[in-house]
Specification:
Blueprint (H helix, E strand, L loop, with lengths): L10 E8 L4 H4 L6 E5 L2 E8 L2 H13 L4 E6 L4
Length: about 80
């Protein structure tokens, strides 16, 4: 984020993938916090724009992970 006054704040997202990600796999998502939830992993954090969200989704696909849910969280 550049901090320009006209830029909207980043949206926070909650992304659920099947399975528990190990430490190495978690490093693929440095902007997001990973937390185990049942047998799945939930990635949560701010993403500055749609391009960043699509980048995360592309990384999930490239790693062969099964995407279960993407949810934009309400502003904090």
């Amino acid at each position: 984020m550049t901090g320009a006054p006209n830029e909207p704040p980043p949206h926070r997202y909650r992304i659920r993938v099947r399975g528990r990600l190990g430490e190495t796999m978690r490093t693929a998502f440095p902007a997001l916090q990973a937390e185990a939830s049942g047998g799945d992993t939930v990635l949560t954090g701010p993403l500055p724009d749609g391009a960043a969200l699509h980048g995360v989704l592309a990384d999930i696909e490239a790693l062969g992970l099964e995407l279960l849910e993407v949810r934009r969280l309400p502003p904090a």
